[in-house]
Design goal:
- The protein is mainly alpha-helical and 181 residues long.
- 44% of the residues lie in helices and 8% in strands.
- The chain contains seven helices and three strands, in the order E-H-H-H-H-E-H-E-H-H.
- A three-stranded parallel beta sheet has the order 1-2-3, sandwiched between helices.
């Protein structure tokens, strides 16, 4: 078995979802209210407020984590979210979902990407909060890197841009196995 790496991680592009269309009308008003209220909760560090997660799920997660109505989210996603260990997650990410402020906020391993010698697939998606251009740059810095862009996807492009995601992963595996990469 040949070794390969699939990367779906990168530096957060805080509050910047590349090429995201500007919402209009009622959606824009709802997002404004959400940003105002969640911003106040964020400023007050009221992260345990049930309304905070409710707002994140309804206005942030459905746009940037998994682009489908919450009631249609796949069971594995729901189960994973319900089992996040806050004792681990919060120190790493920070208490706010709107930007990294924990231990990973200034963690930059970009200089080490050139040391990765195994075939590596870096995946970016248009609606993810991780900047697709940065993800593409990461792929170019790995010795045997390839970039896969999911134009309809978010953080969980394996669900909301499934065909492009899976076709890209399968093609990458076939190319590595056939020695074409």
């Amino acid at each position: 078995m040949k070794r390969m790496v699939l990367l779906a991680l990168g530096a957060l592009a805080l509050n910047a979802c590349v090429n995201e269309p500007t919402p209009s009308g009622q959606r824009q008003q709802a997002q404004g209210e959400y940003l105002d209220y969640s911003g106040r909760l964020d400023a007050a560090e009221d992260y345990q407020n049930p309304r905070y997660m409710e707002l994140l799920m309804a206005h942030h997660y459905v746009d940037h984590i998994l682009r489908m109505p919450l009631e249609e989210w796949p069971d594995p996603v729901d189960r994973a979210l319900h089992h996040i260990n806050p004792a681990v997650y919060i120190p790493l990410q920070g208490p706010s979902e709107l930007g990294a402020s924990g231990k990973v906020a200034d963690w930059d391993r970009t200089g080490d990407l050139g040391k990765i010698a195994v075939p590596t697939l870096v995946i970016g998606a248009r609606y993810d909060t991780m900047d697709p251009a940065h993800m593409e740059k990461m792929a170019s810095q790995v010795q045997k890197g390839r970039y896969l862009f999911c134009p309809h996807g978010s953080h969980m492009a394996m669900y909301d841009d499934q065909k492009i995601y899976m076709d890209g992963v399968i093609q990458f595996i076939h190319d590595v196995d056939a020695g074409r990469f």
